[in-house]
C-alpha cells in the first residue's frame, strides 16, 4: 500500500487530498491543528498528527513521530492568505510575518525532515503554490504579500530539488478553488482541483524535479 503525508489537511484542498487518496487505497498520514480536525481525519481512515507549521518545535515533533516512515508522496498544503492589500499601501510586519512563516518558512523547515523519507521511496514531494506566485503571469499587485510568499516558496522548492536527487520535488498551482481561502466565486471545485493535481502528480518523474506544475496540466511560468 503506498503511503502519503498531507501537511495541512483540516479543510479545503488538504482535506480533499486525504479523502481521494484514502478512496484510492493509500495509507494516509495527515496533519491538522485542532483536536476536532484530527478526529475528523481519523474518521476518514487517516493517521492523524497534530502540527502547527508556525511552531518549529511542532515540526520537529512531526519529524520525530514519522521516525523511519517511508513516503511515496508528501504534500505541503498549509497556507495563509493574510489581509490581501496591494502595493499602494504598506503591509504590516505582523501580516507579512504570518504569511511568510506559514507559506515559506514552514515548507523550508519541513524539507530537511520530510524529503529524506520521500527519497527512501524515490517518491514525490509536492508544495501547493499558486498562480499568484507566478512572476511571469502577474498582472496586478492584488494580494502582493501572498504573491511574494508563493514566489519565494517556488524558489525554495526549485533550489531544494538539487539536494534530494532521489525524490521529485515540485511546486503546484491548484487553480482558483472554492474553499474558505478561494471563496464561493472560484470556478474550480475542490474535487476537480485535487483530481487534476493527483493526475499531474502521477505523471511526474525525476525529470520534473524542481518544476512548477498546474492542476490542469498546462505549463505555468515561474
Ligand atoms: N483556494 C484557492 O483558490 C487557492 C489557490 C491557490 C493556492 N492555494 C493554496 O492551497 C493551499 C490550501 O488552500 P485552501 O484553499 O484549501 O485554503 P483553506 O481552506 O483556507 O485551508 C488552509 C489550510 O492551511 C492550514 N493552515 C493554515 N495555517 C496553518 C498552520 N500555522 N499550521 C498548519 N496548518 C495551517 C489550515 O489549517 P486550520 O484549519 O488549522 O487553519 C487549513 O488546513 C494553500 O497553500 C493555499 O495558499 C489555494
UniProtKB/TrEMBL annotation:
Domain of life: Bacteria
Positions of transmembrane segments: none
InterPro entries registered for this protein in UniProt: NAD(P)-bd_dom_sf, SDR_enzymes, SDR_fam
Database matches in Pfam families: adh_short (PF00106)
NCBIfam families from the UniProt entry: PRK06953.1
Protein name listed in UniProt: SDR family oxidoreductase
Organism (species): Noviherbaspirillum album
Amino acid at each position: 500500500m503506498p503511503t502519503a503525508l498531507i501537511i495541512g489537511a483540516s479543510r479545503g484542498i488538504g482535506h480533499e487530498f486525504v479523502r481521494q487518496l484514502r478512496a484510492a487505497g493509500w495509507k494516509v498520514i495527515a496533519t491538522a491543528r485542532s483536536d476536532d480536525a484530527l478526529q475528523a481525519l481519523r474518521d476518514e481512515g487517516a493517521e492523524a498528527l497534530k502540527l502547527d507549521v508556525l511552531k518549529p518545535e511542532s515540526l520537529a515533533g512531526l519529524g520525530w513521530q514519522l521516525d523511519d516512515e517511508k513516503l511515496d508522496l508528501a504534500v505541503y498544503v498549509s497556507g495563509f492568505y493574510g489581509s490581501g492589500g496591494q502595493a499602494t499601501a504598506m503591509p504590516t510586519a505582523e501580516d507579512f510575518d504570518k504569511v511568510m512563516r506559514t507559506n515559506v518558512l514552514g515548507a523550508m523547515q519541513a524539507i530537511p525532515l520530510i524529503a529524506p523519507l520521500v527519497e527512501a521511496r524515490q517518491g514525490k514531494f509536492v508544495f501547493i503554490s499558486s498562480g499568484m506566485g507566478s512572476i511571469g503571469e502577474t498582472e496586478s499587485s492584488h494580494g502582493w504579500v501572498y504573491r511574494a510568499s508563493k514566489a519565494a516558496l517556488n524558489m525554495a522548492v526549485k533550489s531544494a530539488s538539487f539536494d534530494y536527487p532521489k525524490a521529485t520535488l515540485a511546486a503546484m498551482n491548484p487553480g482558483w478553488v472554492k474553499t474558505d481561502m478561494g471563496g464561493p466565486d472560484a470556478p474550480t471545485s475542490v474535487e476537480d482541483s485535487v483530481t487534476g493535481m493527483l493526475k499531474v502528480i502521477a505523471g511526474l518523474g525525476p525529470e520534473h524535479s524542481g518544476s512548477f506544475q498546474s492542476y490542469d496540466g498546462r505549463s505555468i511560468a515561474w
